[in-house]
């Protein structure tokens, strides 16, 4: 884009924002814009994004045709990646210091276009910073783009959507209308009240106390002890209590659900499975369909209520079973069944014929020793 056209585009974006915002900046270049669905706790909401060579503009479209500016996310330290589960092939994960979230495109192709554009912009921005900051080395810039684990609490975590977990991701207690979901502000996991009764100051929140899960609370306490001066050193009491002063633990009752150990061996979001995703399942031709998450791993079929549950509802070894496709004009090759000794054990239905075929192949592989 020519310099004059770029300036005109930046002015156009600036005027389209509700309120007064300085979008036109020296050296800023417009790269890409588009509407993506943002996954919130309850549902998906349309958001309009503007990608520049130094930042990602995150806005909400208004009825007036203007945009409400939600955040201007710097590309410094930003990470972008796609989920490992094929069921979420249209999604994109954005991680930055200020905000982190999941986006969904209209297709896998559109998702890949955004992934490439943002990844390239992050890489070029990191290299550009070296030019203006001689003290920074190329290795330092490269490390920002690699999959390195950031210190806990230094970046806003991606919150797992409510619909993707039916149980606490720590104690496995089932959520109900009264036993509600809570999000850990350090890792983004969905946990119950009993497992998130702690508060801790987090760097990305300017050390403001925020709800954290038991696991993160313990890790943050370890970090606090590691960074505290040794006993006897000047100013020890004041320094060691700096973070501890915002570490709070509130006793709370636990609503524990007893689950067999075998059902907790594999979580729904495991990355090394043969196949995973949502399917409709029926226990017979006259039984109603249930929408469940399935994982095939080590020739065992695991069934979950949702895609982020840490314990399965049931597990079934596949050895000795056979898989056949149901050829019906109405099913459009989306239906297949699992049989044991020529008796129908389960009937499955995929969203499309392509997915059904991949599942059939995964099942067949699992039934063979």
Major sheet attributes: 7 strands, antiparallel
Work out the oligomeric state of the chains in this entry: single chain
Shape: globular
User: Count the strands?
Assistant: 19
**In CATH's first tier, which class of the largest domain applies?**
Mainly Beta
Strand order of the largest sheet: 4-3-2-1-7-6-5
Structural class: alpha+beta
What is the rounded distance between the termini?
59 Å
Q: What is the domain tally? A: 3
CATH homologous superfamily (4th level) name of the largest domain: Pleckstrin-homology domain (PH domain)/Phosphotyrosine-binding domain (PTB)
Query: Uncertain regions: pLDDT < 50 for 5+ in a row?
Result: 230-247
Q: Enter the CATH topology name of the largest domain.
A: PH-domain like
Helix-strand pattern, N to C?
HEEEEEEEHHEEEEHHEEEEEEEEH
Name of the CATH architecture of the largest domain:
Roll
What value does the Rg take, in angstroms?
25 Å
Mean pLDDT score: 87
Q: Count of DSSP helices?
A: 6
- Beta-strand content bin: 25-35%
Subcellular location: Cytoplasm, Cytoskeleton
Main location: cytoplasm
Protein name: FYVE, RhoGEF and PH domain containing 6
Domain FYVE-type: 162-221
Q: What features would you describe in this structure?
A:
The structure is a single chain. The chain folds into three domains: 3-145, PH-domain like (Roll); 162-249, Herpes Virus-1 (2-Layer Sandwich); 261-367, Roll (PH-domain like), CATH 2.30.29.30. The strands form four sheets. Strands 4-3-2-1-7-6-5 form a seven-stranded antiparallel sheet. Strands 16-15-14-13-19-18-17 form a seven-stranded antiparallel sheet, with helices on one face. By secondary structure, it is of the alpha+beta class. The chain is globular and about 70 Å long. The chain is built from six helices and 19 strands. Strand 10 (198-202) and strand 11 form a beta hairpin. Mean pLDDT is 87; it is low at 230-247. Helix 2 runs antiparallel to helix 3 (138-145). It is found in: Cytoplasm, Cytoskeleton. GO terms for molecular function: guanyl-nucleotide exchange factor activity; zinc ion binding. One of its GO terms (cellular component) is cytoplasm. This is FYVE, RhoGEF and PH domain containing 6. Pfam families: FYVE, PH.
């Amino acid at each position: 884009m020519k310099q004059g056209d770029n300036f005109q585009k930046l002015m156009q974006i600036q005027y389209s924002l509700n309120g007064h915002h300085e979008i036109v900046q020296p050296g800023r270049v417009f790269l890409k814009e588009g509407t993506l669905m943002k996954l919130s706790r309850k549902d998906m909401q349309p958001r309009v994004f503007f990608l520049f060579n130094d930042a990602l503009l995150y806005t909400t479209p208004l009825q007036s045709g203007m945009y409400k500016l939600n955040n201007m996310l710097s590309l410094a330290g930003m990470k972008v990646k796609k989920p490992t589960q094929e069921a979420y092939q249209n999604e994109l994960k954005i991680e930055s210091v200020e905000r982190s979230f999941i986006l969904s495109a209209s297709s896998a192709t559109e998702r890949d276009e955004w992934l490439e554009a943002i990844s390239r912009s992050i890489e070029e921005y990191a290299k550009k910073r070296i030019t203006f900051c001689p003290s920074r080395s190329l290795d330092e810039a490269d490390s920002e783009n690699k999959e390195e684990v950031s210190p806990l609490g230094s970046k806003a975590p991606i919150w797992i959507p409510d619909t993707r977990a039916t149980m606490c991701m720590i104690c496995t207690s089932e959520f109900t209308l009264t036993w509600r979901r809570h999000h850990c502000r350090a890792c983004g996991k969905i946990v119950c009240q009993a497992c998130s009764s702690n508060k801790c100051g987090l760097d990305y929140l300017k050390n403001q106390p925020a709800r954290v899960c038991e696991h993160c609370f313990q890790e943050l306490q370890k970090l606090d002890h590691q960074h505290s001066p040794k006993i006897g050193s000047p100013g020890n009491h004041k320094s060691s209590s700096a973070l501890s002063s915002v570490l709070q633990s509130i006793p709370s009752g636990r609503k524990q659900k007893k689950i067999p150990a075998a059902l907790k061996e594999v979580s729904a979001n495991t990355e090394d499975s043969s196949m995973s995703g949502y399917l409709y399942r029926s226990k017979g031709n006259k039984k109603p369909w249930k929408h469940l998450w399935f994982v095939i791993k080590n020739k065992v079929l695991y069934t979950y209520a949702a895609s982020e549950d840490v314990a399965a509802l049931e597990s079934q070894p596949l050895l000795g079973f056979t898989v056949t496709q149901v050829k019906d004009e109405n099913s459009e090759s989306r239906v297949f069944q699992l049989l044991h000794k020529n008796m129908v054990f389960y009937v499955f239905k995929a969203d499309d014929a392509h997915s059904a075929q991949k599942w059939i192949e995964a099942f067949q592989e699992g039934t063979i020793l």
